[in-house]
Amino acid sequence: MKKIKAALIQHSHKGSREANLAHVAEQIALATKAGADLVVLQELFASAYFCQHEDPALFDLAESLDPQHADTLARKMSELARQFEVVLVASLFEKRAPGLYHNTAMVFERDGQVAGRYRKMHIPDDPGFYEKFYFTEGDLGFQPIPTSVGRLGVLVCWDQWFPEAARLMALAGADVLIYPTAIGWEPEEEPEEKKRQLDAWQTVQRGHAIANGLPLLSCNRHGFEPSPDGHTNGTQFWGNSFAVGPQGEWLGQAASDADQILVVSLDGQRSEQVRRIWPFLRDRRIDAYGDLLKRYRDD
Q: Which of 3, 10, 117, 248 is deepest in the core (most CB within 10 A)?
């Protein structure tokens, strides 16, 4: 990967698909004026985070990911990538077939063509994050997506807690790890617990960058979204989108409570330099890791 500028677009839900799209289009324009070659959108950017409860009617939010279909998000993202000549990563709710849906990140080239897609592999099922109701586990594996700015190791949200996912992307030749995200806390949680959660989220991802000698981009939403059914206190998405380099060094961090375009510079040569002095890939004991394929070592 050559030297590039990457932009993370962090924002709150604007109330409707159309308002979110208008906001994102405006932000992409500003990001490219700032020199961005690569733009990353947050998880499920076009809607509220609908997985706070289970409602079959919400499957109507899912769409075909064929950019040839008019009036789809995929078509709009393709047009924006082409209009602003930028590589664009967009997280979408994919309707693959009747009754079969995925949480899918698409990558569009500068000319609007689809460079590739990644279907979220790890699907959570927790209070306020009932994603297993909506999404089938991904089946495309951990394959970096080749683009004009480098090989993008795109993963999604809950994937960011699993070192195996980051490692497999690195082993397949990713130049950068990218995580569109929607994460937050219940407003009633204690301040100390909120701090622990945020620190853990940042630390585990910085660890992925360090362990694999790769830069990492994590783009999160912000703002309070109430629980539609009142079973929880809603979710305060904590923003704090950030970028780190291949030694976990901070390249930039967004605010916790504001719309923001975070623009950072990435230098692909840093990974080469870092991996020469920290040769983790060289020293891996691949002959001794067979038990990683077990759920748990009961012995």
A: 10
CA distance 273 to 263: 23
For 167-226, write each residue's pLDDT tens digit.
Answer: 999 999 999 999 999 999 999 999 999 999 999 999 999 999 999 999 999 999 999 999
Query: Would you say domain 4-293 falls under CATH 3.40.50.620?
Result: no
Residue 55 has pLDDT above 90, yes or no: yes
What residue ranges do the domains of the chain occupy? Answer: 4-293
Mean pLDDT of the chain: 96
